[in-house]
Design goal:
The complex is a heterodimer of chains A (about 300) and B (about 575).
Chain A: H1 2-40, H2 48-81, H3 97-126, E1 140-141, E2 158-167, E3 170-174, E4 188-190, E5 192-196, E6 200-207, E7 212-214, E8 223-225, E9 231-236, E10 241-246, E11 259-265, H4 267-299
Helix pairs in contact in A: 2-3
Chain B: H1 23-27, H2 32-61, H3 71-106, H4 114-133, H5 160-188, H6 201-232, H7 246-280, H8 287-300, H9 316-344, H10 353-376, H11 378-384, H12 388-418, H13 424-450, H14 466-497, H15 535-547
Helix pairs in contact in B: 2-3, 2-4, 2-14, 3-4, 3-5, 3-7, 3-12, 4-5, 5-6, 6-7, 6-8, 7-8, 7-9, 7-10, 7-12, 8-9, 9-10, 10-12, 10-13, 12-13, 13-14
The chains are: A alpha+beta (about 300), B mainly alpha (about 575).
Amino acid sequence: MRAQKRVGAGFCDRARAFRPVVNRILPALIHLLSIPLAFFTPESGGSSNANQIDNLYKITLWVALVIFVIVEGTLCYILYRYRARKGAVANQTHGNTRLEISWTLAAAVILLILAVITFVKLSSIQDPVNSSPEGEHLVSDTSHLYASDEQKLPPDGKSLEIDVIGRQFVWQFVYPGENEPDGLGAPYSYEELVVPTKTTVTLNIVSSDVVHSWWIPQLGGKFQAVPGYHNYTWFKIEKPGVFRGQCALLCGRGHARMIATVKAVPPPQFEAWVAYQKKQIAEANAAAATARTKLNHEVGAGQVENP
Amino acid sequence: MATYAAPIPQIVAHEAKKEPTGWMSWVTTTDHKRIGIMYMVTTFVFFLLGGVEALMMRLQLGVPENTLIAPQTYNQLFTMHGTTMIFLFVVPMMAGLANYFVPLMVGARDMAFPRLNALSYWLLLAGGIVFYASVFWTPPESGWTSYVPLSSITYSPGGGQDAWIYLIHLTGLSSILGAINFYVTIANMRARGMSWGRLPLFIWAILTYSILIIFAMPVIAGAVTMLLTDRHFGTHFFDPANGGSAILWQDLFWFFGHPEVYIMVLPGFGLVSEILPVFARKPIFGYKAIAASTVTIAFLGFLVWVHHMFTAPIPEAIIIFAMLSSCLIAIPTGVKIFGWLATLWGGTIEFKTPLLFCVGFIALFTIGGISGVFLAVFPVDWQLNESYFVVAHIHFVLMGGAVFTVFAAIYYWFPKITGRMLSETLGKWSFYVMFFGFLMTFMIQHVLGLDGMPRRVYEYSNTGNLALYNLISTIGSFILGGGVLLTIVNVMRSLKHGAVAGPDPWKANTLEWFTSSPPPVNNFDVVPTVRSHEPMKDIRREIEQRTSGAPAPGGATVPAGATQIGL
């Protein structure tokens, strides 16, 4: 009896000790399930448009999985059920019009539903949202930049507009500020695009040589940079972080090394970064001017060209 | 036995001369069968070259940050691989099969224009040689799509790009002349009684293939001519600095490029529609629906090209139109797949190698079709386009859709072409190894694309699971290559040692099985009257009835000579 009791008590004790583990099973299961789901879905999580694409992708995936299971399942069933066996006689039918019409209509209905869902979700992917209060002072009215409505803007018409220039084999980013009184021109950077969080950033994608394609998977889809054309997209990053991507369209021998990084920092840090870039530009300009004067002095005026 | 009225079998000598031999007889031949064989052998050699290029690329991508192959060489490899597989393998392989079997299946003695037919072949070979000669200088390296300005003289100064242009010209001309020949042959030289409603489905597919080539090929011929004059003669069609447009190239290329996809897969669809009924011992389900969907796919195929350009700066209305038309084209494709499933349903399926390849095709092409729906939904395409997802998709459609059917055709028609059977054991091994290798190579590539790996990169960093997935894909590709080798071994062995096939080893449905294997130079001494889309079934039934002594219903369809050739 005692032994039994002890065993029972031990079991109860262990069960009690086990409870936190039990409580962890469900989250663990969900986590396990989310791994294959991530395995089957595109990157997302950086910006709401990428999340919405992911969302639309998952809807398509469920529809696709159903069709996949039905077709491949039927195929396997048929191959097993109707394999040639002794005494089996093939059914000499030539068709069934009603059946043929119904599967044609079924296919049409499924695709129609997918198209409708796409249109419903379209604006959440394409149309930028307003900046949050923290980032509002960084955006400006960019609607005047565009004669038509080709570039989609947030409802309040304000965004941080950055030019993305593709060139063999580096991305260049030009920030607003060309006409500021300091005369330093627009700040720019290569490879790493530093942006403020909580702020709607609109990109004006162009190319200076061949066709490239802008792609940061976690911030939404690809957009070609075509010489002679403008292409547009946007993102709004909520939390600081680094998002990696690379040129997605063959642009020559260095294509695989044409990487891009988007670094999201809180708005104050962003302002500090812009100031630092400007300082760097100013210093570089000053150094160049000094060098020029010195060279001019040595070899004679007019012999040294503007670098 | 003397009670029935049918003519007594007699010995009939072939009218034809003895077949010429020696290599000159091959160079000078205008016989559609010999030209067909030359097409098939030549394109298969190109298939092997393209395959080796693919394996070299997979070797480079087997581990991250690999330095085995230089970036320049890697770009040349995928340019050569894509161009070879499309322009020098799938399209002309289908032309080769059609060359051999269109006259036989419609009951003609040759193609309508035999000498033009020979010209088509020699133009193809010239195109292949011009293109591969560039290997000794500077091979092209701007991809099989050759987007401008990358392919312009500024960014691709090498002669390889020009070799690519001449390849398109020569193989394009070859295809157009071949297509005209197929069209005229099918329209004018069918056996008595073979109305449009009794045309074998493979012939429907080749007819549609020919029409697609006649409409699509001149567009790419014009586009590459514009590229050529841009490169060398001072025009600015595609030069944005001088009022040209880089998007114009994308439009022209894909206006050709999408119908090209159907040029490659429709003949395969036709093959499957021929082979499934034979091994299920059951008529094709919905003959008219399958023929009609072939024609519908071809028509819609001209309306969807913009879905290759969803990420380009083009107006939204056009993007939406392309999405809807791309969804629309999934419907006739679905009708075909359901039709094939229904053909197998209720049959007595004999698992011979040709059937296995057809079933493998249905399984793989369904996956390719479904991933195509993802790509048609354009916001989703923004994530998937130009990534490894698209690489996986194109291989499921073209390798699963075209190459598996070509292998089915090899196993199905080898007995007719050579008079000998291929080994079933080796054939089945080849199928299972290829099928497994294919899935291992390309299934995981969907995930590579979803994880952000763009196509056409010679290296990738060791982040996430990219290294593992790429290694799986590389191992799979070598297994796939092993499967292909098994078929080559099979063909080599069977040419000499295969079992003798006889005229109709499969008890098939179409007229090519009416003549001996291999067929004589004149194909048929007598051409039977056709009364359904399965003429051989009618003929077999009638012979059975005659030899069993029962009177044949509805008059004779079998001419007197039939019994001599093994029926």
